[in-house]
Write a structure and sequence with these properties.
This protein is mainly α. It has 3 domains: 89 residues, no CATH class; 45 residues; 45 residues. The chain is built from 9 helices and no strands. It is flat, with a radius of gyration of 23 Å.
């Protein structure tokens, strides 16, 4: 029942983070907060126990449903975190916000094309002007791997030829969990890219995520 205990811990931590701010809310007594937290912990423990039973069940449908429920809870947590972070950033004057790096702009352009966002949707998602999004996309189409000073975009890893494009497509499809190496190869062949299942398997095995940039020191105070 180790997985059940882990689920309970994760869920309890999630709600502690979500409800901690209530302690400073006006007209919300300490006793009421303590009772709410305790009640939520019991509810989350019940959810965790149910998820653990479904996951350990021999029924594949129950196991799949447990994985689905856990993914939904994780998505809800990430949506809440995103909403809080966006609210903080949007309160800052645009001139005081850190600019996206060339690597981040490149990833944004890939994200836009992958999920079919309009310029306006992308601007709202990434908190910039629609005209800025359009400028990034135009440079990506014109000079996607420019390395001179002042370049708006920088592919990481670099895209120097068709092999690099294929590797990135394999990595993208792999991250979207569309299937195994055979399925990915079939999808790329239908899209006009000649590639074998073994090549896809090699790309997936040797794929390494780019190193994350070192965070800049935060000198602001809340």
């Amino acid at each position: 029942m180790q997985s059940t205990s882990n689920d309970a811990l994760v869920l309890a931590q999630h709600d502690h983070r979500s409800l901690a701010a209530l302690a400073t809310t006006r007209n919300f007594s300490t006793d009421a907060l303590r009772l709410l937290l305790r009640t939520k912990e019991l509810i989350l423990l019940g959810k965790a126990l149910a998820l653990g039973e479904w996951r350990e069940s021999r029924d594949p449908v129950s196991g799949a449903f447990a994985e689905h429920c856990q993914a939904e809870m994780k998505c809800a947590e990430l949506r809440e975190v995103l909403d809080i972070v966006r609210g903080r950033i949007l309160r800052m004057p645009p001139a005081q916000r850190k600019r996206y790096t060339p690597e981040e702009r490149y990833r944004i352009v890939i994200f836009i094309r992958t999920y079919g966002l309009s310029h306006q949707e992308a601007a709202e998602t990434f908190m910039v002007d629609a005209g800025t999004i359009g400028r990034w996309i135009r440079e990506a189409m014109r000079e996607p791997d420019r390395t001179t000073a002042g370049s708006l975009l920088k592919a990481t890893p670099p895209v120097r030829g068709l092999d690099d494009v294929t590797k990135q497509l394999v990595a993208l499809l792999d991250s979207m969990a569309v299937g195994g190496s055979k399925r990915i190869a079939q999808m790329l062949v239908r899209a006009g890219r000649k590639i074998s299942t073994e090549t896809v398997r090699r790309y997936r095995t040797n794929a390494t995520p780019p190193p994350a940039p070192a965070p800049e020191p935060d000198v602001t105070r809340d």
